[in-house]
Amino acid sequence: MLGGVSLLVGAATLDLSTLWSDPAQLQVVTVSRIPRTLALILTGAAMAVAGLIMQHLTRNRFVSPSTAGTIEAAGLGLVVALLFFASAPVLAKIGVATVFALAGTALFVGLIQRLRLPDPMMVPLLGIMLGAIFGALAELLAYRANLTQAISVWMNGDFSGVLQGRYETLWLAGAAAVLAYAFARQLTAAGMGEAFATSIGVPYRLILGAGLAITAFTTAVVVTTVGAIPFLGLIVPNVVTLIAGDNLRRTLPATALGGAALVLACDIVGRLIIHPYEVPVGTIVGVLGAGAFLVLVLRKGNRYASA
Amino acid sequence: MITIDSLTKSYGRQVVVDGVTLELPDSGVTSIIGANGAGKSTLLSMVSRVLGADAGVVTVDGLDVWNAPGRKIARRLSILRQETHTQARITVRELVEFGRYPHSRGRLTPECRAAVDEALAFCDLGELEHRSIHELSGGQRQRACVAMVLAQDTRYVLLDEPLNNLDLVHATALMRLVRRLADERGKSIVLVLHDINYASVYSDRIVAMRDGVVVRDGSPADVMTEDALSHIYGAPFVVHTLGEDRIAAYYR
Prior knowledge:
The structure holds two protein chains of two kinds. Chain A is mostly helical. Chain A has 13 helices and no strands. Chain B is an alpha/beta fold. Chain B has two domains: 1-76 and 155-252, Rossmann fold (3-Layer(aba) Sandwich), CATH 3.40.50; 83-153, no CATH class. Chain B contains ten helices and twelve strands. In chain B, helix 3 (92-98) runs parallel beside helix 6 (138-152). The interface between A and B is medium-sized, with 22 and 33 residues.
């Protein structure tokens, strides 16, 4: 069903886009509109999948790349890459951002495993705090190097600059999501707890590491290429798991489709709202996401808000 | 056979399991009893390789639990612990299917499906199979976990305080299920129990621990004596004989 929605929304984008542009200029479609739509689909799907994996492995509904410091850590990595390896190819920058994102996320997971916070709500708070620290470090570095404008671009996803030849790295994020699907059973088992996973012969630490590596890599690719989309990895997995449960074998494809559909829809809204100008998709998703986050936290019968 | 040789674990200066050497049999029900902090659960966690040891070796049918491949051990030994994510939104059937992971890596064969069906039937879960485990009662969820272990089809089944959070009726139902697993399937089931009377009534053998060492090891008749129990728990006991069973009283 979501697949149908996603296709429709995708098709709609294309239709509207061709209407906007001069019909004679088919080139606009191939150079700008198709890449943009593909980029939206890939980003939406990959970030939603990253969020799903994170919330599952940490067993906390509120953990996602935007509430665990992953996005900010990737941003910090990108600043470092720009400062010290400015001439390096995009892939190398993604590599540096991945390493930072992975280190930041590993720090977060290590902290929550060690601290055993009594209230699940404190987990995302810790993540947001960590993220603020990484973000502040990134800004400090950027300020000294006159890169602050670049930071605001990475922290707020915007697809208006997506053209043919400037989005293709996102396929890597898509590939990471497919890889996650291949490990869906193991990830599901790891999310059931270390003892559970060990008992059925799933190497818990390995799978935990692999899952976090996938999310860090995905986040790094997205931040580097189009900029972070806050809350996307939070809302979509929550809605999907509420409906379809926790078996990643089942929920991963739905989450990917849902993420793609949401980003496509938000991008269309962003393009129409102050037409012919644009509101970055990150802003739209961020506004929606913040609202959805509040609903999730305050929802009656929320198993994480029992206090 | 599971052999435990000079197994030791300390937390800081506190030695929790102190050089335990023990053999666990190929079949039957073995209960591990002892006061809080005696090292029972720590011992079981090490045997099931969830926890590393400071010293000592554990082998399952000759395989070193920490060095042999995980799935190979998982075809011989399963463990059920309280910490299993009870809020997970997966169905009972999906949970039980995880038991087949060591055999098929999750790609269920017809043989796997048969084993899952059979485990569900054995634990009387037919009507619940499509319910999500977070909706189940404590007793139903415990039964679902047992079904998973049954589908895993290991010779050795370790249960860490399986009666926690179960009321009297469900606790008895679970112990009867455990007994049936041993009698009808020839499994070796090792449980950590706090209720010594369940241990007395359902076990073939009772291992008693105190301060990290095994202080008694024998049949219920050997261990369920006033002297032995007083020594194990450091508190007075009265043991009554009710029919064939030895029941300890410790309420006064």
